[in-house]
């Protein structure tokens, strides 16, 4: 009985557990009235959040980010001192 896997088998196994084909199910909302402009969201997920140049408040770049960003978006929501970010739906 063989106790090791060949390269092709390892790649197939990795893809089985890491390849995601589902459509994004998380929806992100921001409440600019609660935003204090700390920028933690932008530092955490610059692909999803930005800050306004004049007021420094959060700007949402992606309402439905891909599943690969779920954990980062949830972290940004947790780090937000004003509680201005909400992640709805499945993921992370």
User: How much strand?
Assistant: 15-25%
* Sheet having the most strands: 2 strands, antiparallel
Name the strands of the widest sheet in spatial order: 1-4
Compute the number of helices. 3
Percent range for helical residues?
25-40%
The Cα radius of gyration reads 18 Å
- The pLDDT mean sits at 84
Order of helices and strands: HEHEEHE
| Helix vs. strand class | alpha+beta
Outline: elongated
Number of extended strands = 4
Entry keywords:
two-stranded antiparallel sheet; elongated
Word description of this protein:
- With 92 residues, the chain is α+β, with helices and mostly antiparallel strands.
- The strands form two sheets. It has a two-stranded antiparallel sheet. A two-stranded antiparallel sheet has the order 2-3.
- A hairpin with a 6-residue loop joins strand 2 and strand 3.
- 22% of the residues are buried.
- The model has no long low-confidence stretch (mean pLDDT 84).
Give a nutshell description of this structure:
The protein is of the alpha+beta class and 92 residues long. Helices cover 29% and strands 15% of the residues.
Write the layout of secondary structure elements.
Layout lengths: L6 H12 L8 E4 L9 H5 L4 E3 L6 E3 L9 H10 L5 E4 L4
Antiparallel strand pairs: 1-4, 2-3
């Amino acid at each position: 009985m063989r106790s090791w896997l060949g390269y092709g088998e390892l790649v197939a196994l990795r893809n089985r557990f890491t390849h995601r084909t589902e459509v994004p199910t998380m929806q992100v909302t921001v409440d600019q009235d609660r935003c204090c402009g700390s920028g933690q969201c932008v530092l955490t997920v610059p692909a999803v959040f930005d800050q306004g140049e004049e007021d420094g408040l959060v700007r949402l770049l992606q309402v439905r980010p891909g599943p690969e960003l779920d954990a980062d978006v949830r972290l940004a929501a947790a780090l937000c001192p004003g509680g201005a970010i909400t992640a709805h739906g499945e993921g992370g």
